[in-house]
Structures are given as structure tokens and as C-alpha cells.
Design goal:
globular; 28% helix; alpha+beta; 19 strands; 5-stranded antiparallel sheet
Length: 297
């Protein structure tokens, strides 16, 4: 079966679409083919068709922690945001990979379940949260994830336990296996609904106060080096406000690079490299990116 056959079956597949429409930085070149599966079956069909047509596959969640090359991505790009079902059963929340982790967090909170409060303002998807072991305000995905179900390279379903995912700081096993997270189960604790929701709203207010949410950005750009905080280190190095093209080290939070208008992915990458070089020269510290950089070079 080919992509044209899947289009005829009603699967949303488009050609030569700018990925800047979907990335949180509002940058990125075109996808050769772009698909939005609504179910696991559609996703499996897309993988099979791509293999038959020998197309490389790139899977994206909410595109919140990505920089996509200005040259775009060849092959088939799959965005999972239409696979977004969330179900609460007892003290567990099951969410498809394309569901926003924010929505999953609030579904838990409204059900009086505690454990996902830290994720109330993280803009990524559930799949991305598992892939990156996303975290904020002292909490991480690994703290409450019970299992994650993935699609293997040959299109089979496999479920990993928390331990099997080998979580560490902004890392999980699926970064190595290249498997596709399709759903996750979070094991939470019963709590007071209003207290949980108050905590979530407080963290979101704090995020709004501290972070430059008024501009497009990819969130925190760099992983935190041991013993250091990125934002204060960049301020000390005189990098806050540094701008290349339309990309700027945020004046509100130096750990963010914002699109001040008309930025390209190349602007972002050039600024990232400039920061890394400066910090290495001044402090001997290697800054590694938390944001994923993908696409053709």
C-alpha cells in the first residue's frame, strides 16, 4: 500500500508543507510528506507505506522542543497530535502519545489525582514527555510513569515498564531504540482536587511570570550542567539579549531563545553555537542542547 492509497482511504497526508506552521519557534522548512494519523491503525498503515516506498520517517509530537532545519525534512513526517485520547481509570491516567501533557495533567487534577502537577505548563506531548523524560519544578515524567507502549521498527506493539525505559535527566531508552511512543500510563495518588488544581494554577502563574511566553520559542534550550544554572551563567557571560537574525537570548529568561520576528532555524543554530563557544571559552563548560535539532542539513 502506498501513501496515495492511504490518502484515498481518508488519512490526512499533505505534500511540501512548511513545518514552521507547527513548530513552537515558528521556523523550519517543508516536509516532503506530512501525515496526521488519528489512530494506531492509521499510524501502522503509514509506517508500512513509507517502508514500501523507501521513505525515511520522522515522528513529531507537539513540536514544542524542536528546531527543524530550514531545509525541511525529506520523506514522511508524522505529527501525532490527532492521537490525543486521555482516559482516567481509578488512580491511573492513560493518554495517547499526541495528547498534550498539559491536558493529561489537568485531566488527572480534575479527577483528584496527584503526581502530574509539575507538567501543568509543559507544552509538549505525552510521547515527547516520555521520550525526553520531561520535567519542571522538581518533577519528572519518570516519577509517575507506570508503562509506555511503543511501536517497534517492524510495526509491532511493545510495552516498557518504568525501569525498562532507563530514565535519566532528559533521557529515555526510546532515544536509542528509535521506537515510536504511542501511549503511556501514569500511576498517580488520590488527593484533594482543589489543592491539586491550585498547585497547577500556581505553577502556571509562576511560569508565565518567569518565562517569555509572549514570544515563539522552543523552551529551555540547554541541559543544566552539573552544579550550574544555564540562565544565570548566560547573564554573567553577558549573553542575555544577544541576537542573531531574529533569534534572541530572552531578556526575561536567559535560558530561552525567542523568535523576535522573522527568525530562521539557521538563526537559532548560529546563536546556540555562539553561546556554546562563549561559555566554553569563559568557563570551560560544555553546554549540551536539551532541544532536539532535526531535519536535512
Amino acid at each position: 500500500m502506498k501513501l496515495t492509497d492511504l490518502q484515498a482511504k481518508g488519512i490526512d497526508i499533505q505534500e511540501n508543507i512548511p513545518l514552521s506552521r507547527y513548530s513552537f519557534t515558528e521556523t523550519g522548512g517543508p516536509a516532503q510528506f506530512l501525515a496526521f494519523p488519528k489512530s494506531l491503525a492509521e499510524l501502522q498503515d503509514l509506517l508500512a507505506a513509507a517502508e514500501e516506498e523507501q521513505l525515511p520517517i520522522t515522528v513529531i509530537g507537539n513540536a514544542s522542543n524542536l528546531i527543524i532545519s530550514d531545509k525541511g525534512i525529506k520523506g514522511l513526517v508524522i505529527i501525532l497530535t490527532k492521537m490525543h485520547q486521555i482516559k482516567v481509570t481509578g488512580d491511573k491516567v492513560t493518554a495517547e502519545a499526541g495528547a498534550r501533557i498539559i491536558d493529561t495533567s489537568f485531566a488527572a487534577g480534575k479527577a483528584g489525582l496527584s503526581g502530574l502537577e509539575f507538567a501543568a505548563g509543559i507544552p509538549g506531548s505525552v510521547g515527547g514527555a516520555v521520550f525526553m523524560n520531561a520535567g519542571a519544578y522538581g518533577g519528572e515524567t519518570k516519577d509517575c510513569l507506570e508503562t509506555a507502549t511503543v511501536l517497534t521498527k517492524d510495526g509491532q506493539l511493545k510495552t516498557y515498564s518504568n525501569a525498562e525505559l532507563q530514565f535519566s535527566y532528559r533521557h529515555s531508552l526510546v532515544q536509542e531504540t528509535k521506537e515510536i511512543v504511542v501511549s503511556a500510563v501514569f500511576a498517580l495518588k488520590k488527593g484533594d482536587r482543589e489543592t491539586i488544581l491550585d498547585e497547577m494554577n500556581y505553577l502556571n502563574a509562576l511560569r508565565k511570570y518567569k518565562q517569555p511566553l509572549e514570544y515563539p520559542s522552543c523552551g529551555s534550550v540547554f541541559k543544566r550542567p552539573t552544579g550550574h544554572f544555564v540562565g544565570p551563567m548566560l547573564i554573567k557571560a553577558g549573553l542575555q539579549g544577544k541576537q542573531i537574525g531574529g533569534a534572541q537570548v530572552s531578556m526575561k529568561h536567559a535560558g530561552f531563545i525567542v523568535n523576535k520576528g522573522g527568525a530562521t532555524a539557521t538563526d537559532y543554530l548560529n546563536l546556540i553555537h555562539y553561546i556554546q563557544k562563549t561559555i566554553k571559552e569563559k568557563y570551560g563548560i560544555d553546554l549540551h542542547t536539551e532541544v532536539r535539532i532535526i531535519g536535512d542539513k
